[in-house]
Design brief:
Length: about 180
């Protein structure tokens, strides 16, 4: 299998971005397209209750990816921490799936909500803490390696650039993002 080259530089970003984060997004999408003929890309946002230690996001991430694997998926992922202007910490996540195995965001949102509910306990409700990132935009976009639709690719790159935006990362302390370990082909 030869490495796929994503036409990344053709996309014009409209906001200042963290180039390290965008490079990881680019690499994860490129690796996915090299590995699979179809890649299903989706986003979700995770909001933790203020009273729950924010370190629990790593536990969420590990358990969520494990649940996805146990459900027959093996997504690559990136998760980025941000702080809103109100001081609320939240996380943006992008997942890269084998598009021959999934084409629907619903089971993945269900898995995320179940994992989060298990972590935060019964005194909180996970309902509404997993945002489906579909406010005026499509979420869950299929990219086909041999027939790339430029409109779809531009939309995926726009969504990934949202993870890399510099805005709301200024007051984040510690590690700002984590992602699937990968080796470029």
């Amino acid at each position: 299998m030869s490495p796929y080259t994503l036409p990344f530089n053709q996309f014009n970003l409209t906001q200042p971005i963290d180039q390290r984060i965008m490079n990881v997004c680019h690499d994860l999408l490129t690796i996915s397209l090299s590995k699979y003929s179809r890649v299903f890309v989706m986003r979700l946002d995770v909001h933790m209750p203020q009273e729950i230690a924010q370190e629990m996001i790593k536990t969420f991430n590990q358990r969520f990816i494990e649940k996805e694997k146990n459900s027959g998926y093996d997504p690559l992922y990136i998760m980025v921490r941000e702080v809103s202007s109100q001081g609320n910490i939240h996380y943006h996540m992008a997942l890269f799936f084998d598009g021959n195995q999934t084409r629907n965001t619903y089971p993945h949102f269900q898995n995320a909500e179940r994992v989060l509910q298990n972590i935060i306990g019964s005194e909180y409700s996970a309902s509404g803490l997993i945002d489906q990132c579909n406010h005026g935009h499509r979420n869950g976009i299929m990219i086909e390696r041999n027939a790339i639709n430029q409109f779809d690719l531009d939309e995926v790159l726009r969504q990934l650039s949202y993870l890399a935006k510099i805005d709301q990362k200024e007051n984040v302390h510690g590690k700002t993002f984590f992602y699937s370990r990968y080796t470029l082909l």
